[in-house]
């Protein structure tokens, strides 16, 4: 069964690079989450005018991978995400299925995060960003400021 979950925090292109490395994820798309306007422009999101969050939508097969594992990937990346004190880059986990929100809270608590330290909320809307933003890190690898190797190594250790 195909399901989706959304993550925010820092640059959405960096988040996408993390999830694209996970072979159990079906697809990922970057875009704009839970704002006030339809079809926002990237500039409006960055300026805060649209009140959207930069987000990644992660699609997965719930029969192949547990939501807990997907949230773990995000949690391991949290220390490396820089939100630059911009509201559009606030850290959060957004769900379509309420039980995924419950699971997100459980994982965050397991890792020592306090309630409301990372936002967990229902998805209201999501608009896919322009094609030039999708998988941006592949065409601009020198701009990837996240230590992807370290996060993946941490994931492999956790799975061992």
Note the topology.
Elements: E1 2-8, H1 12-20, E2 25-33, H2 42-47, E3 53-61, H3 67-77, E4 92-95, H4 98-110, E5 119-122, E6 126-128, H5 136-139, H6 148-159
Parallel strand pairs: 4-5
Antiparallel strand pairs: 1-3, 1-4, 2-3, 2-6
Helix pairs in contact: 3-4
Q: Provide the spatial order of strands within the biggest beta sheet.
A: 5-4-1-3-2-6
Major beta sheet, specifics? Answer: 6 strands, mixed
CATH C-level class is Alpha Beta
Helices and strands, in order, run as EHEHEHEHEEHH
What global shape is seen?
A: globular
Report the structural category. alpha+beta
Radius of gyration: 15 Å
CATH topology: Peptide Methionine Sulfoxide Reductase, Chain A
Q: State the helicity in percent bands.
A: 25-40%
| N-end to C-end Cα span | 27 Å
Q: Estimate the mean pLDDT confidence.
A: 87
Unreliable stretches covering 5 or more consecutive residues: none
CATH architecture type: 2-Layer Sandwich
**Count of helices?**
6
Keywords:
Peptide Methionine Sulfoxide Reductase, Chain A; 160 residues; 34% helix; 6-stranded mixed beta sheet; alpha+beta
Task: Explain how this protein is built.
By secondary structure, this protein is of the alpha+beta class. It has a single domain (2-159), classed as Peptide Methionine Sulfoxide Reductase, Chain A (2-Layer Sandwich). The protein has six helices and six strands. It has helices at 12-20, 42-47, 67-77, 98-110, 136-139, 148-159; strands at 2-8, 25-33, 53-61, 92-95, 119-122, 126-128. The protein has a six-stranded mixed β-sheet with strand order 5-4-1-3-2-6. The chain starts with a strand and ends with a helix.
